[in-house]
């Protein structure tokens, strides 16, 4: 996927905020991209655009040669539902549903039958080491466990790209490492991962490439061939 002069401006009274300003980046299949930059530099806005959750003011996003803006509503919904997964700093789990219920819900809109949703949700949670937490509600899980449920919810749709917006921002050091190790493992299995992070250490030791944003623009791209794939 790549962006071409991608812009997202917000109007604020008489002025405008250039949250994403003429960004041109290319994301290769299978890479683990770190997105860094100070607070307010446009990282979340860029991620939301790439995930099809927001529309650009101008410019485009091309996925396999086709512009997202040319997608019909139905095609865009299918893109969001099947091609991309997203995880957030605050986990964003539904509090009244169990771990299994949260993961099952991700399959609700793509015509999977209830027994099949149940089977796939259990299998994904087991793969992420949560087989003994299926019927727990988010409040009864640790932060690291909640983020793993959120990852299971994103992955159960078998997406091609996982967008992670500061996924370790609410976690302590050990849980941060565990979650980033998990993302690195998924990346080695072929998943493309785009991770926003404030944590320089995590960014440097795990990702293949770093993109730094400042006032909506990409100001630096670094590739470090010494640290491929995220093995530590
Ligand atoms: N919905 C919105 N309305 C107005 N301004 C926004 C909105 N969302 C983000 N912004 C502004 O866009 C800029 C980039 O925000 P954001 O993408 O959240 O940055 P980051 O994730 O790097 O902290 C900030 O100045 C922010 O205040
Ligand atoms: Mg943000």
Give the tally of β-strands. Answer: 10
Q: Quick one: biggest sheet?
A: 6 strands, mixed
> What strand order characterises the main sheet?
6-7-8-3-9-10
* Ligands, ions, cofactors: adenosine-5'-diphosphate, magnesium ion
User: Helix/strand/pairing class, anyone?
Assistant: alpha/beta
CATH homologous superfamily heading: P-loop containing nucleotide triphosphate hydrolases
Q: Could you list some keywords that capture this structure?
A:
binds adenosine-5'-diphosphate, 10 strands, disordered C terminus, 26% strand, alpha/beta, binds magnesium ion, six-stranded mixed β-sheet, single chain, Rossmann fold, globular, 232 residues, four-stranded antiparallel β-sheet
Gist of the model:
This protein has 232 residues and is of the alpha/beta class. It has helices at 43-50, 73-83, 99-105, 114-127, 143-155, 173-188, 200-206, and strands spanning 2-12, 15-23, 32-36, 58-63, 66-67, 84-88, 161-165, 192-196, 209-214, 217-223.
